[in-house]
Every structure is written in C-alpha cells, then in structure tokens.
Amino acid sequence: MTNPGALFRPDWVSPPGETILDLIEEREWSQAELAQRLGFSTKHLNQLIKGKAALSEDAALRLERVLGSTANFWLNREVKYREHLARIEAQERHQSWIGWLDKLPLDELKKAGVIPNERITAKSKPSLVEPLLRFFCVASPDQWEQRYNAGMQLAFRRTRSTQSDIGAISSWLRLGEIEAEKIDGPNYNRAKFEKTLKSIRNLTTQPPEQFEPELHRLCREAGVAFVLVPSVPKAHVSGVARWLNAHRPLIQLSLYGKTNDRFWFTFFHEAAHILLHSEDFGEKKAIYLDDLNADNQDSKEEQEANQWAKELLIPAIYNKQLPELRSNDSVIRFAQTIGIHPGIVVGRLQHDGIILPSWLNGLKVSFQLTKA
Question: How far apart are CA 114 and CA 140, in angstroms?
C-alpha cells in the first residue's frame, strides 16, 4: 500500500479526517467498517473525521496500524489543524481588540519598525494587533493593561504630573528594553561605575561622533546598559533610570535635538539615580521617569539626583566664581579650567538665574545622536 504521507498533499489547515476519508474511499470502506477496524464507535470516528474530537496519541497509533503511514504523520496533521483553528479564533479576537490600538503611538511604532510602514485603515487594524502583542511580550491587551497600566505605573517615579499617556510611555520604555537586550556585559559594579562617571565627564568636550561610542563602551564595562531611543510624543520623558533585573541597571535617554548641556545633565541625573537610589528601588523595580522641562522636581530623590549631577559637572568649590561669568570669553576660560564644555557652564548659569535664558546660547551645541 502506498504511504499516505507521500500520496496525499492535503491542505494542512484541513482536519486529519479529510485524509481519513480519502483513504477509506480509495479502499471502498465505509465509516462503520473503519470504526470497527479501529475499535471506535461510529459516532466517535465521525467526530474525529469532522474535527470535533481531537486526535489522540492512541488514535494516531491505531490509524498507523489500520491506514498506514506513521503515528507522527497523523499527530502532525492534528497539530497543524488545531494551530490553524487557534489562529482563526485569534484573528476574530483581534477584531474585538482594535480599540487597544487607540492607546498606542502607532506612527512612532511604524518609524521604529514595530508595525508595517503603511497607512493604517479600519481594514488593516486587526493585522496590527499580533505584532504589537509580540512587541510588548504580552498575550492580550488585558495582560498589557495589567503589566503597564495597573502594574508598572506603580513603579513610576515621575517629575511631570501630566505624564499620563501610558501608551506612549510604555512604548518608549519597551523600545529601550529591546535595545538593552542587545548589550552584553558584566554585572553591575557600583564602584567601577562611580569611577567610570568621572571618565565620562571628560567626554563632554568631544563631539558626538567621538564621545558616543566611548560612552556606550564605558557604561557597558561597568555593567550599565545605556541606550538612546527617539522620543515618543506625549511620553514627556527626557530620560529614565531603572533596573532590568537585579544585576543590570538601564539608563535610557531620548534623542530629540538636545543641546549638549541638557543631554549631559540628563545623563548624569539618571546615573545619580542608579548610584544613590538603588536601595530605594523596592527590589529594584522603581522606574525614574525624568523630564527636565517639568516643574515638579520636588521629591527628595529628584533633588538628590539634581545636586549630584550639578556637583559632578561643576564642583561646589567653583560656585563662587559662577556669578563672574557673563561673557563668552570668561565662560570658555572657566570651562577649560575645569575640563567641561562651555555650553554646560552656560546651562548652569541660566538654571541658577545668574544670566538670562537668552544669553550666551551660542556656546551651546545642538546635536542628534544615533542609537548605536
């Protein structure tokens, strides 16, 4: 007898019963005769053929003996069919889940390659549900709500009271997680990171194409994942400090046209959260979402991080000299003396109210960075 696995090229989404029917038709057997040969009731065989009853390992062995081929062949037919049914049911659920998409920044996720870069229509929305669930690593929008809206929000420590768009925030955070997953390195070493930050301070005088790869390397060697992710509208986040697990902290910065004073202050502010507030993370689950444009930075942790970053960039011993810096030349000379970029000095002078926000901005540098 010809091997049915070789003879038949069935549509793998059909139930195994179609192959059974083809074989008994070839042999001119009735369903009743086959049921008798298999030791099944006619009703049970009929349910197997229609796909209403699942084909078990025992049934596969019986089919192997009576109709040929192998038990593995019959079980594979069953698995493919059940998978197909599950996908059909999932597609139907996806149609009912499209309201979830309204909570997500779809245009930004298109730019990031999470979903196809195509026009989003009512017809195409159901097809976007699956890749977005995969992106967030959740089985359904309910699990997304539990993880991000109900769960992760409890860990947020925010500087902006209006940071309420959980779809934008969760998307930006997830993009950072994906970038961080690509980084290999040792476990976090606090002493090494603290020492490394002093070396990183020296990078502030360099252009992005020089300091960026070095910044990534130095953080990685200290066990800290550092990633750059384009900003997502409505997230209102300049940077975040968090722990991916018990051994790997993450510093994530957004990429929208920062001036160098803001970029470096944000970086060292997040680094301060890692250094100073690890024990405050509550099993290292707290997530510090920071926006330098926010007016709500009154928490103890934010004040400590601000102060630490300020003093690393411009040590307190130089505070008395700051009011004297009111010209380009004086700022440049001072910056060269302490080894940082003049734009950072200008940012500090403006922040402290020593000069107007419109003064000396020509010393600042605007740049875009890559995600490398």
Answer: 17
- Asked if residues 221 and 196 have their Cβ atoms less than 8 Å apart, the reply is yes
Q: Residue for token digits 């409890």?
A: 154
C-alpha dihedral sign at 276, 279, 280, 281 = positive
Q: What one-character-per-residue DSSP string does 6-52 give?
A: HH----TTS-HHHHHHHHHHHHT--HHHHHHHHT--HHHHHHHHHTS
Domains for the chain: give ranges and CATH numbers.
4-96 (1.10.260.40), 98-136 (no CATH), 153-314 (no CATH)
Task: Give the Cα-Cα-Cα angle 117, 120, 126 (nearest 5 degrees).
Answer: 105
pLDDT tens per residue, range 290-318: 766 555 556 788 889 999 999 999 999 99
Which H helix or E strand runs over 243? strand 239-245
- Cβ-based neighbours of 83, under 8 Å, separated by 6 or more: none
Which helix (DSSP H) or strand (DSSP E) does residue 84 occupy?
helix 71-96
Q: How many angstroms separate the CA atoms of 371 and 221, rounded? A: 18
Q: For tokens 């026009």, what's the residue?
A: 119
Question: Looking at per-residue confidence, does 143 or 285 come out higher?
Answer: 143
Mean pLDDT of 185-207: 94
Q: Is 119 left (phi over 0), alpha (psi -120 to 50) or beta?
A: beta
Distances (CA, A) of 252 to 198, 241, 358: 19, 7, 29
Which among 223, 285, 284, 230 has a CA at the least distance from the CA of 252? 230
pLDDT in tens, 334-353: 999 999 999 999 999 999 99
Using a cut of 0.90, tell me whether the model's pTM lies above it.
no
Of these ranges, 12-26, 60-74, 152-166, 287-301, the one predicted with the greatest mean pLDDT is 60-74
Query: Does residue 56 have a pLDDT over 80?
Result: yes
Choice between 307 and 1, residue whose per-residue pLDDT is larger: 307
Pick from 1-5, 17-21, 158-162 the range whose average pLDDT is largest. 17-21
Selection from 173, 212, 225, 193 nearest residue 308 by Cα: 193
Render the burial of 139-151: b for 16+ CB within 10 Å, e for the rest.
Answer: eebeebeeebeee
